[in-house]
Every structure is written in C-alpha cells, then in structure tokens.
C-alpha cells in the first residue's frame, strides 16, 4: 500500500492520457491537412488550433477532472468531500509552545507576513533569471548569425546545418540541465524551505507554484524576447549590442 498520493497520481495520469487521445487524433488530421493545403493557409489555421487546445480543451478537461475526482472520492471514501491527511513537514522549525487544548508541546507556526522578505528575494531571483535568459538569447542570435555568415552553403547535413545544430544542443543543455536542474530547481527548494511551512502539503504547494513560475520564465522568456523584443527595429540591435558587450 503506497498511500493516497500514489493512487491519486496514477488515477490522474490515466484520465489525462485518455483526454489527450482526441488531441492526438486531431493532430494527425492537422498534419494530413498540412500536406493538402498551402503553408500560408496552414499557418492561418494554427491559431484556431491553439485557441481550441488552450481555451476549449483545457477548460473541458478541468471540469471533467473535477467530476472524476468527485467520483473517485465517493468510491474510495463513500463521501464526496474528504480532508486529506496533513503530514508534518520534517524541515519545519519553530518555537515550542503548549497546546491549551491537549497540553502537548507543539511548534508555533510562522506568521505569513514574515515570509514577505523571502517572497521578495524569490521575485528578485526570477528577474535575475529573466535577465540571464535575455543575455543568452542575444548570444544565441549573434552566434546563429555568425555561423550563417561564415558557412554560406545551407541545407540539410551541410556544415552550416551541423554548426547550428550543435549551437542549439549546447544552448538546450545549458538551459534545461545546468540552469534548470542545478540552479533554478535547487533555489526554488531553498526558498520554500526558508518559508518554513508546517505541513508537507503546504510545502509542496508552495514549491509547485515556484517551479511553475520559474519554469515558465526559464523556457518561454527567449520565445517572447525573440517574438516581441528583438524583432523591434533598432531596439533589437541595441539590446543585442548591449548584452554582447556586457
């Protein structure tokens, strides 16, 4: 018996994979459609596909999961609303005080306002990560243009193709492995530990929120910067020059 969390995880993954099946079929249809229409028409269809997935499918999925969740709770516990067992956080530390009801010694919880400086520190770290990503994007764009200029012959399996592929691999390894696994994830865990939550559930929720925000910034900053910053006339060149000389 591995407990409620493991059973809940497999139940969610089973439901999630079933919900992805319609998207997979529609994705195959989109790929077939791509071969039947022009690239311009296909690119015009893609925004509707994105809206359908992010707005319609995601909303329906969340509502359906709520119903499935209620069904599981009723089947497992014979009631719709149950409170999850709160396990104490082993890293929690606080002042020992006597519980007036039980007479037992318990640790006094940290007031939420005292976590304010840690929240500010976490926000500053996220801004720093965003700045680092902007610098990396500027560096990546500069190297990309340099490789295209140095190796004129383009096409599949050419020297230019291999050079740009190697650049992308190095960039991906740094962003995904070094920066994310060794820096961002560990810093998120450190900030969450400093926030000093009394239960494992509160600790995990706070950690998930941080990882989600940091993951979003870590992976999408360079997409947004390429799409909305570096393409702006004069601004993109100015930022690239500043970051390259920094």
From TrEMBL:
GO terms for cellular component: membrane. It comes from the Eukaryota. It is found in: Membrane. The chain crosses the membrane at residues 45-65, 118-141, 161-183, 211-232. Residues 2-232 form the Anoctamin transmembrane domain. It holds the Pfam family Anoctamin. Its main location: membrane. It is a multi-pass membrane protein. This is Anoctamin transmembrane domain-containing protein.
